[in-house]
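Reopening this one. Same input as before:
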Amino acid sequence: MSELALYTYFRSSAAYRVRIALNLKGLSYEPHFIHLIKASDDQWAEYRKINPQGLIPMLIDKTADASIPQSLAILEYLEECYPTPSLLPVSPAERAFSRSLALLVCCEIHPLNNLRVLGYLKDIFHIDEAARMTWYRHWIAEGLASFEARLAARKPLGPYCCGDAPTMADACLIPQLYNAQRFDCDLTLYPILKKINANCMELEAFSKAAPENQPDHE
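Same output, byte for byte:
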């Protein structure tokens, strides 16, 4: 049995990031599935004993008696405890660049478009689906345009966000692009991101982590 356990949901982009990172590092883990829509009140109550915030993902490292919520904190933890292969480039400037791209996704795009926000817009403000999709696509476009521009300014471009190897920037970008495609966002304006996505999905670490390849996929 693996010493690592991951509380996950196939469609959670935050959990998707962590699955990619675990795969890139060649780490096996025991999945625990929490259905973000269909989980019962009893299941949520039990999960909140582990993670009071009740969000996915949550990593348990039994060897260190550590419980880590929040996807970026998990990625940093994996980098510190299992440093090879690295999720970050070598130089401090490049490491900061990779982290800044990861933060662009996790702090600027995803929080405005996650399941809780879309549900709140529907249930509290009674915003219809067309308006919610306008909201969703607006913030996707804002964030991805910035991501594309930052990469376009780099010379030369590598196959991944930060050169010749995928980093945490790629681990955060690919799930966000998956969501964008799922909600029919126009990605033709982001040729660099589309190429990086294609390159990443050729790697088993990324394809194995994809939502459709999870045991809880439906």
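So the earlier flakiness isn't reproducible anymore. For the record, The CA atoms of residues 7 and 73 lie 14 Å apart.
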